[in-house]
Write a structure and sequence with these properties.
Enzyme class: isomerase
Number of helices: 11
CATH topology of the domain at 111-362: Rossmann fold
CATH class of the domain at 111-362: Alpha Beta
Structural class: alpha/beta
Distance between the termini: 43 Å
CATH superfamily of the domain at 111-362: NAD(P)-binding Rossmann-like Domain
Bound molecules: nicotinamide-adenine-dinucleotide, uridine-5'-diphosphate-glucuronic acid
Strand content: 15-25%
EC number: 5.1.3.6
Radius of gyration: 21 Å
Shape: globular
CATH architecture of the domain at 111-362: 3-Layer(aba) Sandwich
Domain NAD-dependent epimerase/dehydratase: 30-266
GO molecular function, one term: UDP-glucuronate 4-epimerase activity
Number of strands: 14
Order of helices and strands: HEHEHEHEHEHEEHEEEHEEEHEHH
Family: Belongs to the NAD(P)-dependent epimerase/dehydratase family.
Largest sheet: 8 strands, mixed
Strand order of the largest sheet: 3-2-1-4-5-6-12-11
Oligomer: single chain
């Protein structure tokens, strides 16, 4: 399916080449899909900072506020990262990108994220997380040189497992949501491309990532907004008032894990998984190993915002959420040198500071634009 007519031509190619140009001899040339997204923006910026060539790809869909995606784009633009506007399902566009620049790594982060939204728009998960992943792997398979692929799976693949902490070898055949099922399908599909075509593939199971420039559909983000507006927040509880908790992981820790995975992907050794010839197939948990209840999350926000929340404790609806997540990160520690260091309190402090700054700036910008249009 083609959704991006706005690419091609010499000026466009020049921007693509310049963005992907490697600045250090040891640098890599990385295509970051989902670069206007939360994790994508941070990872693209970090790779660029250390001298890699970085090219973004994003379709700027309206799942959440596209203005926020454009603001992230503006930030990357200033850092020298060009985001091509297009859909990962656009095979001709992907072919073109691989033709124009020799991409050494694909950091594949474009996806339909969010667990609960699958109840209302199941098709978007199949489009981006299943068909889109196949399109990216097809393009990588056909490219010369063949890039190593690092991509975002999810802690949600552990589904209804009650054994914690979750280890990579644990069963992942009982997803609780369509989102989780598409990420699980993605892991199986990735394995096929490693097996048949020898693609180097690394899947990263992120655990509830939060931080500045985050996603407005995630609880920590809309709880902040609702607490500030005096609106009630619903705190989910399990059966018999059991705690609902998450292994919240701060964005900077995730970025370090992603960058390490890109560096490790080029290596032909590693006990992370099955190997096809020289190409590894690996899966790692990237979590924080210290689950915090949703109720404690709200208490920290109250403290940081200096506002009392209007709390409603409600039985967790059957919406695809799971009760508890907790990562075992030993494999990522050993093979990627991954060591998360940020507590939920200090990470949320940085998020709250960003949130207040971002929304006060964009609200005053909006107000002055309204003033201008009234006076004109
Ligand atoms: N944030 C988390 O807590 C978390 C946890 C586990 C896994 N993940 C995964 O990490 C990745 C990044 O998540 P995020 O939180 O940054 O989400 P995000 O929604 O902020 O970023 C995803 C980006 O991909 C783009 N996109 C979606 N479908 C596309 C398509 N078909 N073609 C081109 N672009 C498309 C979106 O416009 C968006 O900018 C996703 O794969 C997500 O499933 C995130
Ligand atoms: O780790 C992951 O794999 C997943 O992490 C998050 O999913 P989730 O952990 O459900 O994050 P939130 O949607 O922010 O929810 C956090 C917690 O708040 C709870 N919650 C949510 C909404 C609400 O109104 N009340 C409430 O208590 C949820 O049940 C959950 O326990 C991301 O949204 C997914 O894209 C990602 O794949």
């Amino acid at each position: 399916m083609s959704t991006s007519p706005s690419w091609g031509g010499p000026a466009w190619e020049k921007r693509v080449r310049s963005s992907a140009r490697v600045r250090r001899a040891s640098g890599k040339s990385v295509l970051v899909t989902g670069a206007a997204g939360f994790v994508g923006m941070h990872v693209a910026a970090a790779l660029k900072r250390r001298g890699d060539g970085v090219l973004g790809l994003d379709n700027y869909n309206a799942y959440y506020d596209p203005d926020l995606k454009r603001a992230r784009q503006a930030l990357l633009d200033r850092a020298g990262v060009f985001i091509v506007e297009g859909d990962i399902n656009d095979a001709a566009l992907l072919r073109k990108l691989f033709d124009v620049v020799p991409i050494s790594h694909v950091m594949h982060l474009a996806a339909q994220a969010g667990v609960r939204h699958a109840l209302t728009d199941p098709g978007s998960y199949i489009h981006s997380n299943v068909a889109g992943l196949v399109a990216v792997l097809e393009a990588a398979k056909a490219a010369d040189p063949q890039p190593a692929v690092v991509w975002a799976s999810s802690s949600s693949v552990y589904g209804l497992n009650s054994k914690v902490p979750f280890s990579e070898a644990d069963r992942t055949d009982r997803p609780a949501s369509l989102y989780a099922a598409t990420k699980k399908a993605g892991e199986e599909i990735a394995h096929v491309y490693n097996n048949i075509y020898g693609l180097s593939i690394t899947g990263l199971r992120f655990f509830t990532v939060y931080g500045p420039w985050g996603r407005p559909d995630m609880a920590y983000f809309f709880f902040t907004r609702d607490i500030l507006r005096g609106k009630p927040v619903s705190i989910f509880e399990g059966p018999d008032h059991a705690t609902v908790a998450r292994d919240f992981t701060y964005i900077d820790d995730i970025v370090r894990g992603c960058v390490a995975a890109v560096d490790h992907a080029g290596k032909s050794t590693g006990s992370g998984g099955k190997k096809h010839g020289q190409a590894p197939f690996r899966i790692y948990n990237l979590g924080n190993t210290s689950p915090v209840s949703v109720s404690d999350l709200v208490s920290i926000l109250e403290q940081l915002l200096k506002v009392k929340a209007v709390k409603k404790f409600v039985k967790m609806p059957r919406n695809g959420d799971v009760q508890f997540t907790h990562a075992n990160i030993k494999l990522a520690e050993k093979e990627l040198g991954y060591h998360p260091t940020t507590s939920l309190h200090s990470g949320l402090k940085k998020f709250v500071r960003w949130y207040l700054d971002y929304y006060s700036t964009s609200l005053s910008k909006q107000a002055s634009e309204e003033d201008r249009s009234i006076s004109s």
